[in-house]
Structure formats: structure tokens, C-alpha cells
Amino acid sequence: MFENNKPSVEGYPSARRNVICEGNGELDVVSVKGGDGMLPNTSLWILDEGCQLGGIASERGSSFFIPVLEEVKNISQPNGDEELIIHGKLLLPCNLSAKINMKEGVEEEIVKKGIDEEDCVSENEIHSIISSSELEKVRDETEVSMCILFGKADSPSSTNSFILKNTSETKANGNERIVEGGKEGKSYWLLIVCIAIVVVLLIALIIFVVRWRNSKEEAKKYKEIVDDNIKKDPKPIEIVTMEMSPEEQ
């Protein structure tokens, strides 16, 4: 069944034929010989569709594949929507969804967005659009985080969460990004201006020090030349005496 089980989908080197367990079947995985599933919390490539799993398969976050969330960026669209650019590993378009958590005090709002095949660029990158209507509750006091849900639809597992916005940040608007560390609004330009000022001050300081050292060296050389000339051609000191006439006395 798995003969010549090699990747054949462009951009998805991990996508291969896998085990499908459905109906009232039972599957107890005692050990694995090698491959991805040997490591803790890695993929076993067993698609569970109503099976009773046991052993290693029941101990994993998913018996199928386990995606990893590494980075999330977003780009504001002209219509107010946000395009999420997600980077990670094993981002396969199979029962994946993005979970956006908006928390303000004790109140919490959750937005789930299914990830389709058209959203996936490769198994390492996803582009997904979140409509502005779903982000209406993002205010200054709102903390926003995101994770990827995977596995069974009725009881999914989740990846680590990525902070999109801390409560100390301002609400995204215009070209500002809500992603922590990826903001392109006022803070971004303020940082550039501060860096430019520091660079200018450093350059001015360097120029001042160089000129001061040059002037000091020139003064030293001039003194040496004068001293050398005095040694070579010393002039005697003439003492002039004047006699006063009887009338002046």
C-alpha cells in the first residue's frame, strides 16, 4: 500500500499517502520503526475518522500531523480587512483553522477562520484574510493572540499562541500593524527618526574629535619648527643706553 510513497505535490514535501482508520475500527500503535513519528509530539500520519486509537496514537496531540506555528505577520487592506501571513511547519490544508482570541479584562471573544487549500502557499506559509467585521472589538485595551487548531473538528488540538497585540499597544488603523514586533505606524517611524538622530550625533562627534586632534598636531608641529629655527639662528639681545644732555638734565 505504501510502495513508492514519495512526495508528489509541489510545495508539500511532507504530503504522502497515510493510514486512514474509519468506522468502528480499532488501531493500537505499540511502536514505530522510524521516521517523523519516532520523536515526541511528532506526526504519525494516521487519519482518524471514527476509530478507537490506542498506544502511541492516543498519546499525541493528533494522530495525523502536528503543525508548528513560528511567526505571524499581518498587512492592512484598503477595505479594512487584515491579511494574516503565517509561517511554520506542516501547515497542510487538512482540518486546519486559525483561532483568534480577543481578551479585554474578563471578557473574551474568539474568532475561528477555516484555512482552505487556496490559503496555503506551501506547507510552510499560509495567507488568510480576516474581515474587518470580525476585528471590530479590537480596542486599545484588547489583547489579541492567535494559534492554529488541528486534528479532530469536534475536539481539536492547538499550536502555541502568537501574540498579535498587547494591551499596551494602540489599536491598529491605517498602515499600522497589530502584530507585535511588526508595527509599521507611528512607532516604526519614531524608531527610524531616533536612530537617524543618534547616527547624526555620532558622525558630528567623530568629525569634532578628528578636527581637534588635527589642530593639536598642527600646533605641535608649528611649535617644533619655531623652536628649531631659534636653535639654528639665535639673535643676540642688544642693550641700548641713552645719555641725557645737560639741558635735559
Short summary:
With 249 residues, this protein is of the alpha+beta class. It has helices at residues 56-59, 186-232; strands at residues 19-22, 26-29, 46-49, 52-55, 68-76, 82-89, 97-104, 107-114, 120-122, 125-130, 143-150, 157-158, 162-165. Strands 7, 8, 11, 12 and 13 form a five-stranded antiparallel beta sheet that branches. Strands 5-6-10-9 form a four-stranded antiparallel beta sheet, with no helix packed on it.
Question: Would you spell out the secondary-structure blueprint of this structure?
Answer:
Elements: E1 19-22, E2 26-29, E3 46-49, E4 52-55, H1 56-59, E5 68-76, E6 82-89, E7 97-104, E8 107-114, E9 120-122, E10 125-130, E11 143-150, E12 157-158, E13 162-165, H2 186-232
Parallel strand pairs: 1-3, 2-4
Antiparallel strand pairs: 5-6, 6-10, 7-8, 7-11, 9-10, 11-12, 11-13
